[in-house]
């Protein structure tokens, strides 16, 4: 029998009606002849509310208790889903992460999965139960409840699919799949039929958040293919998998935008060991997340270092850097908010040349100035004026032929 692991996110179980719809889909899938494990997230907003509540009680809630508290969100949603399945006359049972055999390290609120012993799940599947697993949580070797970091139900699903050697892993969410660009920005953005793990990871780091990045990394490491698809519709979603040679034929798979960025440039920095370390340790000590870092080649013994951060952190960063700039004898600090980062991502870049030239020419034709550039093997990112961001995405989308891609096939499937 085909074994499927399905994951339902917070919005998919956000109300009693939604939970009943999930239950109908589960029962229907089982009746089609599948063994079924469903990983359930807390109902939409519940985790945020619990975190808020904890901070109203204590400015620094104990991490152990935070895990006990947060795990209840998934307990509730999975029990309710099991009840809804039972009410339809099918057999379901809900399990906590610990009962599902998910063993983690002891790091509260961001534990890593160490091992999975899915014996209990397998026994229940053999008795025809639909097994509903509370996502986002596990148990340490000491028997302590742990959680897997925000968005961690994705990781639960991927890891279970791997451990159970499932035939399919489906991540049901409120979007239809992974798109070539945000459809609110580029109206003719297309749903991708497939995406390589690495591309999905790059797109997530570039602002297109569809899945928890740790879950995608786990899937890549253990070769767990999965599909991102809509819980509201029956259309096929996007398959994430290891890159295949034919995937390299596509030059650019997708485009992401990161808005509300700020750019900082420290000009006239002495070109000598330790200076960059000084600057960035100060930024890191304040827990400010740095994105792009660009250092120029030095001329006359000095160089410029530029980097980007989120706009909200610009004031803090400026305060921290002013004294550092004079300490290291740099000439000045320039800052600008209101910039955006546009990234084009595709493993096709490994085998196609001239991608950067094409991107720069396209932006140049549109009168869009490029302020910073950084690249990885499969990504080119440019910092531009935020006011140009949407137009830049549209022009780039068209330049790389994403507008004319055939939409992913959506074979007829009865509603669930
Ligand atoms: N409920 C958790 C969160 O909101 C886990 C998840 O949704 O995957 O982060
Ligand atoms: Mg979620």
Element-by-element helix/strand order: EHEHHEEEHEEEHEEHHEEEHEEHEHEEH
| Beta-strand proportion | 25-35%
Extended strand count: 18
Helix content: 25-40%
Shape: globular
Low-confidence stretches: none
Strand order of the largest sheet: 3-6-2-1-9-11-12-10
First-residue to last-residue Cα separation: 20 Å
| Tally of DSSP helical segments | 11
Global structural class: alpha/beta
Radius of gyration, whole Å: 24 Å
Overall pLDDT = 94
Q: List cofactors, ions and other ligands.
A: aspartic acid, magnesium ion
Largest sheet: 8 strands, mixed
Write the layout of secondary structure elements.
Blueprint: E1 2-8, H1 16-31, E2 34-40, H2 46-57, H3 63-87, E3 92-95, E4 102-104, E5 113-116, H4 119-126, E6 130-134, E7 137-140, E8 145-147, H5 153-163, E9 168-173, E10 194-196, H6 197-205, H7 213-222, E11 226-230, E12 238-241, E13 254-270, H8 275-285, E14 293-295, E15 302-310, H9 314-327, E16 332-345, H10 355-365, E17 372-376, E18 379-385, H11 389-399
Parallel strand pairs: 1-2, 1-9, 2-6, 3-6, 4-7, 9-11, 10-12
Antiparallel strand pairs: 4-5, 7-8, 11-12, 13-15, 13-16, 14-15, 16-18, 17-18
Helix pairs in contact: 1-3, 2-3, 5-7, 6-7, 8-9, 10-11
What does this structure look like?
This protein has 416 residues and is an alpha/beta fold. It contains 11 helices and 18 strands. The strands form 3 sheets. It has an 8-stranded mixed beta sheet, with helices on both faces. Strands 14-15-13-16-18-17 form a 6-stranded antiparallel beta sheet. The chain has a 4-stranded mixed beta sheet with strand order 5-4-7-8. A hairpin with a 7-residue loop joins strand 11 and strand 12. The longest helix is centred in the N-terminal third of the chain and has 25 residues. The two termini are 20 Å apart. The mean pLDDT is 94. The chain binds aspartic acid and magnesium ion (MG). The site of magnesium ion has 4 residues, from loops.
